[in-house]
Write a structure and sequence with these properties.
Blueprint (H helix, E strand, L loop, with lengths): L7 H4 L23 H29 L1 E4 L4 E5 L10 H8 L27 H12 L5 H8 L17 H4 L4 H22 L1 H10 L21 H15 L5 H17 L6 H17 L1 H5 L9 H5 L3 H8 L8 H17 L5 H28 L18 H7 L13 E2 L2 H5 L10 E2 L16 H6 L2 E2 L18
Parallel strand pairs: 2-5
Antiparallel strand pairs: 1-2, 3-4
This protein binds zinc ion.
């Protein structure tokens, strides 16, 4: 999980620790269920686990939670689920639809190859349909055939506030475009038309050029393809097939490649979004050539259909590089593989979570020490509590250092009733009180060792009406 107000440049660097692991989902084989039922039970298990993991979001999204922001101020935050990054099978799992349908819109299974757009799924309507099916008001034929849903009745997103799960599903460039539409489909069709040997001969005949990869052995014998391999192939593919394919097929290839490149832009204007649509239309206008040449019967492919949703998603959530699944795939190494290797391979889940907790603690401690070292000469406002300061020996080193000794400022804990926070001008509400810590609104603290110093740096928002604290000192500001 990550939060939306972190810059995407920071978020996509695994070393910045902008994404955290919430939990491991079980991969049980569910052999206790019969073959037909196993699949739907797997859906139910996933939704049950996600409900457990995200249950705090329900309360926090409705009532708000006090959080300390990077500028040191505490704000009342209402976290909501805004975007869900996943590959296609997981998108269907989340949206509770069959894999022959679209997790975002109502398109039928035979229409997925067309360029026409269908109306979007409506969360309330989907929940109503599931309820009706549970109560036996809808026949199985209609439920499976027309609606294309899975019989999951307790959905993890049903109770999340201000959330439309179908809108949350974001484009997935790696699996949908690079690996899906381009490599698995387009390259395969072209290879069938041209012939593997002829295509490999073209790749071998290429001269090497700075910045372009030379596929010296061709591409047919290569089994393992990474994301960067796909990108390298995309750069030379149009040149390789030009002259070998029919003109319409070359235009269709160019449409897909143009779309893929525009989709990777780090920022967009209305003009670039229009060009994306134009490239997609160009592919749809000329795709029939692949049917004429006998390599396809239809284009009912979910990844080709998903391209219709790209421009709308970019308008909603920004450029697609912020939602690329390459980062979660990379984090799989840190959060799962490395953690597993650190265990003794027996009862490993507990050991893996402990290891991850320790890694986080070391990173946070290191960050804090770096922050302190960088601020020791310039920041003379760091509070120091000689009675309570417990920074694992750091306080001793502070005495001998040449930086200005931090001075303790009165520490005030304030209990703020939620209603008052929302509407401080309302007179009949109970006012904030001092020295009455309320367990419900504790600021999340990173490390026990850092608690003292972080707590003393908590400052209330500048627009916080301090005059309302009757008979008390105004909150300290540093
Ligand atoms: Zn769709």
């Amino acid at each position: 999980m990550t939060i939306g107000n972190i810059s995407k440049d920071v978020r996509r660097q695994p070393s910045q620790h902008a994404c955290v692991l919430l939990g491991y989902l079980p991969t049980a084989k569910l052999e206790c269920f019969s073959g037909g039922r196993r699949s739907v039970e797997r859906y139910r298990l996933f939704h049950y686990c996600m409900t457990q993991i995200l249950q705090l979001l329900v309360v926090c999204g409705k009532e708000g939670v006090l959080m300390m922001c990077p500028d040191g101020l505490v704000r009342c935050v209402f976290p909501i689920l805004a975007a869900y990054v996943a590959d296609f099978p997981e998108q269907c799992l989340v949206a509770c639809c069959k894999e022959s349908r679209c997790p975002k819109c109502m398109v039928t299974r035979d229409q997925r190859g067309e360029s026409t757009r269908s109306s979007a799924h409506v969360q309330r309507q989907t929940m109503k349909s599931l309820k009706k099916y549970e109560n036996g008001e809808i026949s199985k034929e209609e439920f499976d055939g027309n609606l294309g849903l899975r019989a999951v009745y307790k959905l993890f997103w049903a109770s999340l506030p201000h959330c439309d799960i179908f809108m949350c599903i974001t484009p997935d460039i790696l699996h949908q475009l690079h690996k899906g539409v381009f490599k698995d489909h387009l390259v395969s069709w072209c290879s069938q038309i041209i012939g593997e040997d002829a295509l490999d001969a073209r790749f071998r005949a290429m001269t090497s050029y700075s910045g372009l990869r030379h596929f010296k052995k061709g591409i047919s014998s290569r089994k393992q393809w990474t994301g960067s391999d796909h990108k390298e192939l995309e750069r030379v593919f149009l040149g390789v097939v030009a002259g070998l394919l029919d003109e319409h097929a070359v235009i269709a290839v160019r449409g897909i490649l143009d779309f893929t490149y525009y989709a990777q832009y780090q920022s967009h204007t209305e003009a670039t979004l229009k060009k994306m649509d134009t490239a997609l239309r160009s592919f749809h206008r000329h795709k029939a050539i692949f049917v004429d040449l006998g390599v396809r019967n239809d284009f009912n492919i979910p990844k080709i259909h998903s391209m219709l949703h790209y421009t709308a998603s970019i308008c909603l959530f920004g450029s697609t590089d912020g939602f690329n699944t390459e980062l979660p795939e990379r984090l799989h190494i840190d959060f799962a593989k490395k953690a597993y290797r650190s265990s003794n391979k027996r009862d490993y889940t507990h050991q893996m979570t402990t290891w991850l907790h320790q890694q986080d603690a070391i990173y946070l401690k290191e960050s804090f020490l770096t922050w302190y070292r960088d601020n020791r000469h310039s920041d003379d406002t760091v509070a120091r509590d000689t009675d309570h300061c417990n920074l694992d020996g750091l306080s001793d080193s502070l005495d001998n250092s040449d930086c200005k000794a931090p001075v303790i400022v009165k520490c005030i804990r304030i209990n703020i009733p939620l209603q008052w926070w929302r509407n401080p001008t309302k007179k009949d509400l109970s006012r904030p009180t001092e020295e009455q810590p309320n367990g419900n609104y504790l600021v999340l603290l990173c490390l026990p060792q850092n608690e003292d110093i972080i707590y003393r740096r908590v400052v209330l928002c500048p627009d916080y009406p301090s005059h309302r604290f009757k008979n008390s000192t105004a909150p300290p500001s540093y």
